[in-house]
Structure formats: C-alpha cells, structure tokens
Specification:
It contains ten helices and eight strands. The protein is an alpha/beta fold. Helix 2 links the parallel strand 2 and strand 3. The structure holds 2-phosphoglycolic acid. Its EC number is 5.3.1.1.
Length: 251
C-alpha cells in the first residue's frame, strides 16, 4: 500500500547561501526535468532567499520551502518569521522541529506541534523532524524517543497531503555516518505503524523521509528501503549535481 507513495527529495540548506547561490538553484531547476519521473523536489534555502528562489521556480518542478517558523501569525516577536510570511514569500512547505533547532533553541515537542499547526494555518505542508541522539541510541531508547516525539510533535488532523515526517538520527546528521538499511527499515516500519494507528489511511499514505548524511553514493540503497519515501538532505543539497543525483537514486 505504501509502495505507491511518490518520493520527496527535500534539500535543507541550513544557514548557507547568499544571493550568488541562485546559480546553483538555477542548475537544479534546469536538471529537475530529468528526475521528475523519480521524485518531487523541494529546496529549503535560508529565509532571505525564499522569495527570489520561488520567483525563479514558478511553473517549474522544484518547490521552495522554509526551515522554521514562529507559531504565531504576527506580533511582537523580534527577529521571528511567521508561517504566513514564508507562504507569502513563496514557500510551500516548512521544516519544523529539526534537531538543530531542538538542541540550539531548546524547542520542545509542544512548540514543534504548534509550528506544524502554524504551517497548516498558512496553507503549507509541515515537515516534522524526529530522531534520537547517539546517547539515546546507545541506551537502547530509540523507539521510545521516536514514539514520544511523534505523539507530541504531530498535530491531530495530520494527513498525507499536509504533513511529512522526517526521521533524522541526530548522530547521522553531518557526520557521514548512516544507519544500516536494516536499521532504517526497522525504524521506518515502526514509524509507519504509529502513523497508521493514529491517522489510519492517512498514516498509511504519509511520506516518511530519511535524513542524515544522505549523499549520491548511498541514496539508492537508502531510498530502496521499505517505508522510506524520500530524503531530507543537508550538506549534499547545496550542490545541484549531488542533489539531483540523490533524486535519481529513488527507485
Ligand atoms: P546532512 O543533514 O545531510 O548534512 O547530514 C541532514 C539534515 O540535517 O537535514
């Protein structure tokens, strides 16, 4: 049943990219047609580049997204950006609950859920990130951590067309380390069961992305794993050739 889910390859540029990076994005737009049969493509640049990238991407097969949002629609929150502003700039998805935000900014599951709801309020997809740390993994707590994060970070009413789950083991992010295909299959299978038990048919159709050191050389193996419906890519999403090669690796 989940085999029919169309993969999503999402690039998380993190705090990288200046106006000059538009050339790299142009190369992604140019190369996207060749991989359109394989996967949907989404690039989440820093907020400063969303409007310019979205203007370039109009009518093309690459969508533009954001990396975070504030839960409120407006107000006295200096330096923050509302989901409505990101949508207005051209974002069609917002990553929420990335482990770097959970760790660097102390974001709780409850706040992450509010941010996902803010994305919906603005009419865009929420990509909710979950994942265990090395210490939690070593202590055998991975599944308990994921169960807790998913139950508290995913809003009620999550559907396949408004919510994407990204499983990103914290120890695999930016380290070059990845879980084995067998581990990924077990964990994504576990996440799928939780999604189905909470959201029924919608949970069966929801995309579950794998993230953490995805690159062209390991993408085909990871993307072939059952219940892996695409990737959230950090470092390798900064170069068009690598990002497109990852999409090409989708089954
Ligand atoms: P990475 O980052 O691909 O550089 O490991 C993934 C992420 O943090 O989304």
């Amino acid at each position: 049943m989940t085999d029919a889910i169309r993969p999503l390859i999402a690039g998380n540029w993190k705090m990288n990219g200046l106006k000059a990076s538009a050339a790299e994005f142009d190369a992604m737009l140019t190369g996207a047609a060749a991989v359109a049969a394989k996967a949907d493509l989404l690039v989440c640049p820093p907020a400063t580049l969303i409007a310019a990238f979205a203007a370039k991407a109009a009518g093309k097969t690459v969508a533009v997204g954001a990396q975070d949002c504030h839960p409120k629609a407006s107000g006295a929150h200096t330096g923050d950006i509302a989901a409505e502003m990101l949508a207005d700039a051209g974002a069609s998805a917002i990553i929420v609950g990335h482990s770097e935000r959970r760790a660097d900014h102390g974001e709780s599951d409850d706040l992450v859920r509010q941010k996902a709801e803010a994305a919906w309020r603005a009419g865009v997809i929420a990509i909710v990130c979950v994942g265990e740390t090395q210490g939690q993994r070593d202590a055998g707590q991975t599944l308990d951590i994921l169960r807790g994060q998913l139950s508290l970070s995913l809003p009620g009413g999550s559907k396949a067309d408004n919510l994407v789950v990204a499983y990103e083991p914290v120890w695999a992010i930016g380290t070059g380390l990845t879980p084995t295909a067998k581990d990924v299959e077990q964990i994504h299978g576990f996440i799928r069961e939780l999604l189905i038990s909470r959201f029924s048919d919608e949970g069966a159709k929801m995309r579950i992305l794998y993230g953490g050191s995805v690159k062209p050389s390991n993408a085909a193996e990871l993307m072939a794993v059952k219940n892996v419906n695409g990737a959230l890519v950090g470092g390798a999403s900064l170069k068009a050739a690598d990002f497109l090669a990852i999409a090409k690796g989708c089954p």
